[in-house]
Amino acid sequence: MIDPPQRTKVGLIFDDGFARSTLATAEIFEEYKLPAVFAVIADPSSFVPGCGDWSMWNELQRRGHIIQPHGQTHAKLTDLPPTAAVDLVRRCLDSFTENLQGFEAKNALYAFTYNTPTPQAIQWLLPRVRAVRIGGDPLLCEADLKSRIWRSQTDGPHDPYENCAHYMNRAVRERPAALFYCLHGLDGEYWGATSSDNLRRILDRITTDPAFAYWPLTSS
Predict the structure, then answer these.
(1) Residue ranges of the domains in the chain?
(2) Per-residue pLDDT for the chain (220 aa), expressed as one digit of tens each?
(3) How, if at all, do strands 139-140 and 109-111 pair?
(4) What is d(CA 77, CA 123) in angstroms, rounded to the nearest whole number?
(5) Does the chain have fewer CB atoms within 10 Å around its N or its C terminus?
(6) Residue pair 116/135 in contact by the 8 Å Cβ criterion
């Protein structure tokens, strides 16, 4: 008897922490009885208006959702001197430790802003966190997962639904261990926002297609 192909774990992460989108996204995931994963900025004061705060992140965590570090600010690390980039990453982890209830860096997935780390930042983080997220082909094999440097893909400034569906179709054909896709806001809020209907289409497929299993990015 031939064993059926393995299910591909599909991980979705929502970057930047726009408050209106985050709350709507959480409610949609709750319809499916799934935890949403949000990568948020410790200090969004120099970013765009309308981001959430620690009170919101702690409340969402109490509701069963997962909050991961995205950066101290939304600075692009590759635009900074290497030592300054590492210092910003360190400050981010310090902020999360201080403000997010129960946060332990060793369990965290550090999702780099713009998916563009510096080599020094990766080297500094890997002994301290569970995994880091960078840009690249989002179809991951077991060796990729064990490396703890996980590639993800995103698309914008338009709705990224078709791009996400493209990679899901590839995953059905290729059956990788995991697919890691990065989303942002919802229903037109800022760059690369998908619609509520398209998010439900993605979750419908993950939860009904035997090729997939939902992956909350909590372990490899």
Answers:
(1) 8-214
(2) 555 678 999 999 999 999 999 999 999 999 999 999 999 999 999 999 999 999 999 999 999 999 999 999 999 999 999 999 999 999 999 999 999 999 999 999 999 999 999 999 999 999 999 999 999 999 999 999 999 999 999 999 999 999 999 999 999 999 999 999 999 999 999 999 999 999 999 999 999 999 999 999 987 6
(3) unpaired
(4) 14
(5) N
(6) yes
